What we know:
There is one protein chain. The chain is α/β, with parallel strands linked by helices. It folds into two domains: 2-202 and 375-394, Rossmann fold; 217-373, Glycogen Phosphorylase B (Rossmann fold). It is 47% helix and 16% strand. It has 16 helices and 13 strands. The protein has helices spanning 17-29, 47-53, 67-74, 84-87, 92-105, 137-147, 153-173, 182-187, 228-248, 263-271, 285-289, 306-313, 322-328, 342-354, 356-373, 376-394; strands at residues 2-7, 34-41, 59-64, 109-113, 129-134, 176-179, 197-198, 217-222, 254-257, 275-279, 291-296, 318-321, 337-339. The strands form two sheets. Strands 3-2-1-4-5-6-7 form a seven-stranded parallel β-sheet, sandwiched between helices. A six-stranded parallel β-sheet has the order 10-9-8-11-12-13, sandwiched between helices. The longest helix is centred in the middle third of the chain and has 21 residues, at 153-173. The relative contact order is 0.12.
Amino acid sequence: MKLLVLLSRVPYPLEKGDKLRAYHLVKRLARDHEVFLFCLSDTDIDPTDIDHLKGFCSHIEVVRIPRWRIFMKLLTVLFSRLPVQVLYFHHRHAQCRIDKVIASFKPDHVLCQLVRTTEYVRHYYSLPKTLDYMDTLSKGMERRTETAPLYLRPIFRMETRRLIRYENLMFDQFDNRVIISNQDRDYIYHPLRDTMAVVPNGVDTEHFRPMAQEAEYDLLFTGNMNYAPNIDSVQYLVQRVLPIVRRSRPGTNLLISGVDPSPSVRDLARADPLITVTGWVRDIRASYASARIFAAPMQIGTGLQNKLLEAMAMGIPCITSALANNAVGARPNEEVLIGEDPEQYAAHILRLLEDETLRHRIATNGNRFVRSHFDWDVASETLSRLIGDATEAAG
Length: 395
């Protein structure tokens, strides 16, 4: 089958959640289908990254969207009904390129990741299409509104309303709708949301596995450190949890590891000599292996936290929120520890730091859970079957 895949970013290197999901699913779909990978990009791309993707994609095209075009497009936001998430990525020159690809490649099916890309193909009514919502963008924006500065809240509320409307509209214009977790499916407002297929992420357990290395840090947080939910989470950890921990263990240190740390994240390290912010690292496994505990007190955001899956696969005991674990489904107090407030997070951290047997039990159970529940091959097989069924029905 000829499969056209539309992405809002080039899915390599793997430093962001949407890239990770796209990369692993597309790599496996390419085993059975002729894949044309069409990507948008607002940054320059390293040619070696494209060469890597050519190792499994039959065709690749990247459309560069200059920042000045994005700025000009966003000036029209008050005169458009489209969400900013969609306006940012939809441009006329890119539409012309995708139209040419569809005319020449003649795909049997189109797979779009995120509603950011759907505007490009929504008018191709006779072409079978699958939309991977990944997570529920409208719910994520709604949660950000609750903690945003007062002057931003009207803008975020407007974006939330637009996203809800657009997510519902795209629901009706695609043959298949998939999403990353049951929790995110329940956040979709469409009355037929229960018909959506849940396709969770996997974790590469051959790559992410326990490593024999001396722990240098007590606590670890990883992720895209310019992403609002991650910034919020690590600030919560540093400003509200860590002071309680240090009443009992003054020397407790923290490693914050991940791409593109915001100024507010870098400031955490400047103000505290026991906090290290690495920025991008070549091999994130070294960060996992250097810590005793992974702590991710996620307060906002949606989707499935890949950082939790990777930490569990690496054999690191994890502490997180019920919000994050609802999408993962690990058993509290057996495979993961759940915090509800700063005092409870601090108590969990102190227990794990003081009890090596408990650390080992939570880590071992978490590793076993991830290995048995999150498999990229299973996820891609589910997606491939949905694509095949929709294409056959249309033909």
